[in-house]
Amino acid sequence: MKHTLPFTDTFPLAHYSLDLSRPQIMGILNATPDSFSDGGNCYSNGRIDVNVAVARAHQMLESGASIIDVGGESTRPGATPVDEAEELARVVPVVEAIVRELGCPVSVDTSTPSVIRESAAVGAALINDVRALRREGALEAAALTGLPVCLMHMRGEPGNMEHQQNYDDAISEVHDFFAARLKECQAAGIARERVLLDPGFGFGKTLQQNLVLLSKLAHFHRLGCPLLVGLSRKSMLGKLLGRELDERLPGSLALALEAAQRGAHIIRVHDVRETADALAVHQALQEID
Fold this sequence. Notes:
Layout: E1 10-13, E2 16-19, E3 24-30, E4 43-44, E5 47-48, H1 50-63, E6 67-71, H2 84-102, E7 106-109, H3 113-121, E8 126-129, H4 138-145, E9 149-152, H5 170-188, E10 195-198, H6 207-215, E11 228-230, H7 235-241, H8 249-261, E12 266-269, H9 272-286
Parallel strand pairs: 3-6, 3-12, 6-7, 7-8, 8-9, 9-10, 11-12
Antiparallel strand pairs: 1-2, 4-5
Helix pairs in contact: 1-2, 1-9, 2-3, 3-4, 8-9
């Protein structure tokens, strides 16, 4: 049976727009030394190498990404916060260079108000916040930029989220969290039409909770916002399959396809070319009457 995504109009990304009639790919570019999968890949002699970052972004675009997500703070389980000045130094030059040299939409994976403001000033198109704009000043900063935002669900902080997995009903609790955050955003001047939602797979959730959230992903369409999911190389694959980080590509592709089938609009991944191929096959089958 043909699967049709809701919200088939384009989604505004500053000076760009994203076609939501088919799943789009967000390529992960971490300007960090310690992210769980690609940490250090943009470093040279212990410092961020902007030229390397731009080259990686270009490769992802050529491979099928529609948007590049730049982050300067690791949010892996157990991660510690990054100093504000360090996050600014990691993120802003990379965002500026990618926008200038590649002319593509860039998302900024941050919770820090100053990083939100400075990234917007150099051309960022989307604010992607794992803390759903709950850090002090973040909601106001995002609203002032006029940019669309992605709100992710996470209990606590990366350093302690693994100890906060006692959900009575993960679907209902994540839904209620989003409903409350949407009200806060609207009160601050961020319209629902400029919001994406991310259930936060792997962020303080057990394997079973992650699987339930994915199986019921379409439930969150009721909130009236497009859905972004990040499942790539996550530890849930290690728990489910017993695979190490560098052995999780097949599982990641399976999760991407399941997410697409269940109504994900944007799929955030490390392995862009392989995911693009898998989604192209998926889309071809959906277009058969």
